[in-house]
Design brief:
- This protein is mainly β and about 180 residues long.
- The protein has a domain at about 45-170: Sandwich (Jelly Rolls), CATH 2.60.120.
- The protein contains 2 helices and 13 strands; from the N terminus they run E-E-E-E-H-E-E-E-E-E-E-E-E-E-H.
- The strands form 3 sheets. Strands 1-2-10-7-12-5 form a 6-stranded antiparallel sheet, covered by helices on one side. A 5-stranded antiparallel sheet has the order 9-8-11-6-13, with no helix packed on it.
- A hairpin with a 2-residue loop joins strand 3 (about 20) and strand 4.
- The longest helix has 8 residues, at about 30-40.
- It is globular.
- The protein starts with a strand and ends in a 12-residue tail after the last helix.
- About 35% of the residues are buried.
Length: about 180
């Protein structure tokens, strides 16, 4: 397993060792010891796994929990997404900045999203299945949405026109009005 820092050093691209031959491939999608060694995140443990399926043009996010913030280890098992994280830690030098990474079944990359970040993705293939592990449970009363199209954050989504959104994502708050972390 290899971990590579992004432009926001706490956000990591995780690449597993993939063993393949004419029959197909095999890789460990998660191994706590290898994850800790590659990332240095020795205190991280996961409590919940989530799985979603979406069609092309669906945008989910940008979500976070203002209390019980979740770290997330995300990956795609079918199709392709453009995955985005936004730093919502006011004390961070990268506050309000974003990182975007293509995750796909083909590249088998994973992304570590630390607590204190908003997270979302848009499906760029015909459909995508998205899996993620979280470091805390889902508390709907603490869930918040950062507006996916906030011009102050200015995420460069690889889409034309308007994405398909849930009501909570349409109603997301701009960074200037959003509850953020210290």
């Amino acid at each position: 397993m290899k971990a590579t820092q992004t432009s926001i050093p706490e956000v990591l691209i995780i690449e597993p060792k993939v063993f393949g031959d004419a029959r197909g491939f095999f890789f460990e999608s998660f191994n706590q010891k290898a994850f800790n060694e590659a990332t240095g995140l020795n205190e991280t443990s996961f409590v919940q796994d989530n799985h979603s399926r979406s069609t092309k043009g669906v945008l989910r996010g940008l979500h976070y929990q203002i209390q019980h913030p979740q770290g997330k280890l995300v990956r795609v098992t079918q199709g392709e997404v453009f995955d985005v994280v936004v730093d919502l830690r006011r004390s961070s030098p990268s506050f309000g900045q974003w990182v975007g990474v293509v995750l796909s079944a083909d590249n088998k990359r994973q992304l570590w999203v630390p607590p204190g970040f908003a997270h979302g993705f848009v499906v760029t293939s015909e459909a995508a299945e998205f899996l993620y592990k979280t470091t805390d449970y889902w508390y709907p009363e603490h869930e918040r949405s950062l507006l996916w199209s906030d011009p102050d954050v200015d995420v460069e989504w690889p889409i034309e026109g308007e994405p398909q959104l849930a009501a909570k994502d349409t109603a997301g708050k701009r960074l200037q009005q959003a509850e953020v972390f210290a």
